[in-house]
Amino acid sequence: MSRREQQRLLDIIAALDAIDSHTARGDVSDGLIFDAIRIRLIEVGEAVKHLPADLLTHEPHLPWREIARLRDHLAHRYFDTTHAIVASTVTHDLPQLRRAVEHLLQRLDEDRANT
């Protein structure tokens, strides 16, 4: 894994941390919270789009293509995005994503230690 890949993974973690901070302030039914989370989900999708496919094979249980496509949906079909979809993504999908990204970062650290 290159330094660039590591930075993309760290970008995802930073966006997930920001989402956690936003949800601690309120519910997605609040328009400002919804918008803030939506922007961070776009950042997540953008970072995923720039990760190489061979890296993502180390976490095959995640729907990486769907994560990247969510970015496109949120960015280009804003009015078709419901609060329920965003709330469900935050509650059910982001914890799995965080674990996978942390695992990939750990793998990077181990690879560097072995070289």
Structure description:
The chain is mainly alpha-helical and about 120 residues long. The chain has one domain. The protein is about 80% helix and about 0% strand. The model has no long low-confidence stretch (mean pLDDT about 90).
Keywords:
0% strand; elongated; 115 residues; mainly alpha; 5 helices; single chain
Sheet bearing the most strands, described?
none
Q: What is the straight-line distance between the termini?
A: 12 Å
Low-confidence stretches: none
Outline: elongated
Assess the beta-strand content as a share of residues. under 5%
Rounded Rg: 14 Å
Total strand segments: 0
The figure for the number of domains is 1
Structure classification? mainly alpha
Percent helix, as a range, is: over 70%
* Order of secondary-structure elements: HHHHH
Number of helices: 5
What's the rounded overall pLDDT mean?
Answer: 91
Organism: Kineococcus glutinatus
InterPro entries: HepT-like, HepT_RNase_toxin
Protein name: DUF86 domain-containing protein
Keywords: Hydrolase, Nuclease, Nucleotide-binding, Phosphoprotein, Toxin-antitoxin system
